[in-house]
């Protein structure tokens, strides 16, 4: 049983009944069953989509109970804006994120807010996402994208459809491995996913299953899965240890791994410990590719279904890039419409679909719901992004023009949160956006995408989201008439990769 003292918060899972004194004000699904809770009709493989279904019926704040564990979910625009107030709320490490602690420990993503290694690693690694660092990664991103296109050319010539999520995962894994760690997994030379990817998917899926399998029964129900998970974690650790060993023996390349190994804190000079470096490398290899791969896959799905949007995006690529074979770093940020396609895909399917916030001290959410210090709620980004009060009655429709500058300015703050919020927002946001915009630009220029007419979007969940079984047919796009590249529009000014990230 959890214990509370004046200073320490209870350890382990903190159910809503501990922290929300007026919990009865928050609706829950009908037909709650004693002991088991709100499990009627639940799909354990799609917990997010289940919660979306309930949220649509129950409203902007609701609760669900699974085997005695009660959770508050929030998705209404006003409530999320309140939870984004950094002076009252902080990141809560719970559920799936806490389940990743055995493998990622106090790495940047899974660190508790109060752990000293979070600030240390943040300060050491943030310069690795500066504009200057990003410009250095750009040619490597291009090299990897060219390897993807070699593969897609061959598939197209053979008349075969391409496996979009599979190939986007290869692309994004190779990109983060190469740019962050000078490592090559050889994904494009393999017919099956690299064992690192298989082990990573295993640990993510296991972390998600531990959310939905009742605590007391989990040792029994998940015995086999837990054993496989041990093996997956051991494989991830071995792979990372090899990457680090190779680098220790070689000269630095000025990348993320170099920062981890050789750079001290800008003020104190303190270094990351070897154990923490192992955690960070796993964190970046996983967080740095899985979500971007999903974002690219959803964007390609929507492009294949909307020829008029594709034509507009392609016209922009031709106009902005002209016929340069390898677009420069600055030319990527100028693809404003392509970027809107990406934003709109992340709106409908934010590939990290939820994040948790906890009260720093006793407070009242939205002036209505009292919360004790440490009480927390799960923000359902995927529903926030479909709130009709914010996005209109046609919120389910794919429309990149929702992200033109005027429309963005007209919306309230904190209504688009695919990268989380506050100090713990995604450190890799600019990295992901640059990589994905570059790759979409290159693919739009080279191919026309033909959907499989029988395909209906199914979304697979393993903490992150991915279009399940998406395959596309490719035709080579006709070359555009040569046009001079446009160089007049100024790129957006540099800004902090993290603090400027959340709106
Ligand atoms: C489209 C791609 C991406 C999406 C949608 C995404 C989303 C997110 C979200 C929602 C969070 C906050 C999670 C929370 O509050 O619990 C986060 C944190 C984080 N992301 Fe990303 N991410 C993406 C790409 C990347 C990339 C490319 C990297 C690294 C190169 C990365 C590294 C991280 C790290 C290290 C954190 C933890 C930051 C901290 O707590 O200080 N992400 N991401």
Automatic annotation (TrEMBL):
Segments of this protein annotated with the region Disordered: 481-503
UniProt entry keywords in alphabetical sequence: Heme, Iron, Metal-binding, Monooxygenase, Oxidoreductase
NADP among keywords: no
Matching PANTHER family: BIFUNCTIONAL ALBAFLAVENONE MONOOXYGENASE_TERPENE SYNTHASE (PTHR24291:SF50), CYTOCHROME P450 FAMILY 4 (PTHR24291)
Protein family per UniProt: Belongs to the cytochrome P450 family.
The protein, known as: Cytochrome P450
